[in-house]
Amino acid sequence: MEFTKGHGTGNDFVILPDPDGVLDLTSELVATICDRRRGLGGDGVLRVVRAAKHADGADLAGEAEWFMDYWNSDGSFAEMCGNGARVFVRYLVEMGLAVPADSALPVATRAGLVRATVEGDAIAVEMQRPRLYAASAAALGGLTLPGTAVDVGNPHLVCPVPAGLDLAGLDLTRAPDVDPTVFPNGVNVEFTTAGAPVAGVDAHALMRVYERGSAETLSCGTGACAVAAVALRDIDRETGTVAVDVPGGRLTVTVTPNSCWLSGPAVLVATGQLTLPALRP
């Protein structure tokens, strides 16, 4: 099996080319590929398949040639992955499967159609506008941190860290406890605090994240969008641009009246072959 490895601000993915959707990809195989000791290691798998050749992308085949079949590192599916979409587009362009044009490049996902633009080292993807819809809380190491539930095509819970509590000191080695009645399918939990002023943006936030199906990651694109929406709300803004610093770098989020743009670096770092007999669970 051919593969490429890539990352967006440290959020890393194993990319599997499968244009005609013929790979026998299972949850167990995905989990083994993403294992950092027995496999290649990654926060998830991005299967590159033509939309017309995948059941979850067929309805969008008239609008996008390619479907991003995204799997979490534990072998579960996710509706959307912002950094994954940016790395996916980097792969399409560098492998000659798509050509950047004056108009944005469409990509089909389980959360619907996203559009992408290539800006040198950065790739920006347009996703749905984050929707803040409920108050909830996360319990972590004896702490209960109130937060806001946000829908970005996938579920998020954004929890500001109170003054006096160090964001970097939070123990994210285990999943935070959340309310299953609010998040029946699990949730990505973002812990955030305000950063120092940054020129050219309306707000600056620092963020760590525990992703459902992947544990703590160095970055989460949709999580950054959720954090940006909450940061704008807190300064009484419905639209604007927010710099979001994650352990893996900086992402820039622009919330518009109708959508949300996520921009940052997306890099391919390796190509090769997986030895399937050695990886089979």
UniProtKB/TrEMBL annotation:
It catalyses: (2S,6S)-2,6-diaminopimelate = meso-2,6-diaminopimelate. The record marks 156, 211 as: Could be important to modulate the pK values of the two catalytic cysteine residues. Its EC number is 5.1.1.7. InterPro entries: DAP_epimerase_AS (IPR018510), DAP_epimerase_DapF (IPR001653). Catalyzes the stereoinversion of LL-2,6-diaminopimelate (L,L-DAP) to meso-diaminopimelate (meso-DAP), a precursor of L-lysine and an essential component of the bacterial peptidoglycan. PANTHER family: DIAMINOPIMELATE EPIMERASE, DIAMINOPIMELATE EPIMERASE, CHLOROPLASTIC. This is Diaminopimelate epimerase. It comes from Micromonospora lutea.
